[in-house]
Amino acid sequence: MTTKPTELRIGAPEHFDGSYEKAISWLNSVQFYLLVNAAVYDNDNKKIAFALSYMTKGSAATWASTFRQKCFTAAGVLTSLGTFDDFVKAFKAAFEHHDIVGQAIRWLSTTRMTKDKSGVWQPPLLDFISTFKNKVAQAQIVDENVLIGYFSAGIPPFLMRRIFTMDTAPTTVAVWYDKATHFLTQWERSDEVASRNKNPAKITYRSYTTPSSSKTADPDAMDVDVIRVAKLTPDERKKCIEKGLCFRCRKAGHLSSACPSFPSSKKPQKRIQRISNDETLPRLEPVEDDDDEPAVRRISFNTLDF
Known about the structure:
It is built from 10 helices and 4 strands; from the N terminus they run H-H-H-H-H-E-E-H-H-H-H-H-E-E. By secondary structure, it is mostly helical. The chain has helices at about 20-35, 45-55, 60-70, 85-95, 100-110, 125-140, 145-155, 155-165, 175-200, 235-245, and strands at about 115, 120, 285, 300. Helices cover about 45% and strands about 5% of the residues. Among the domains are: about 20-95, no CATH class; about 100-195, no CATH class. Strands 1-2 form a two-stranded antiparallel ribbon. Strands 3-4 form a two-stranded antiparallel sheet. The protein starts with 19 loop residues before the first helix and ends in a 6-residue tail after the last strand. A hairpin with a 5-residue loop joins strand 1 and strand 2 (about 120). It is elongated and about 130 Å long.
């Protein structure tokens, strides 16, 4: 049992539209694909049929249709598509530009890199160099001075001046390729740095304040700062005094200023001071304030008789 060969989809050609500029490169891609898949396309009919299947646009589609019609006999019988070599000759006669050298020279002498609306040089330098090399091969020019003249005229003017003002200007176009790429990269980097310096990123500084108290709040503790104790009515106040209850939590055993359930954030202040050192006179004793208990004057008569 024979195994059917597998077709490798490596470098499949694009659909050809009849363009003279793309004709030879397209034909080369077809021949490359057929070579890689020689086990699949193992005769001339298969090779020609494969090539015709990619001639589907523009004048190429018309030529492919005419080629197929010529393969039929007068009786309308299709026996063979001919040899692949004859197909290649017919293709080149129809689509290969007859003035390849002249066309390449015109490209070399007229093509220039220019800036687009966004200020970017087009075509990109590497693309320009690649196409320039192909056109040089087509034009069959070997004089370095001529090639340097074409290349220096095509690249951006600032690159041309930079290379010409070197201590030793390059004498081969290959070195011009390298220097142009090097200096353009340097220029792009310096332009990027200058742009950053012109528009520096806004830096936001965060201020930190030292808390007035070093005490760290317990995350599990109840937030008493937001709790407000209902103000006592006169009757409730009277009952708390009679029973010795706290004005805040209504429990016995402590004053409201030291209430453990509702601690006050304010430190008690002594607002009433002793007004006389004379022990024979009544004196005012300082008392502590809280939110619910206004300052109360307590007068002691140590030496007075009633």
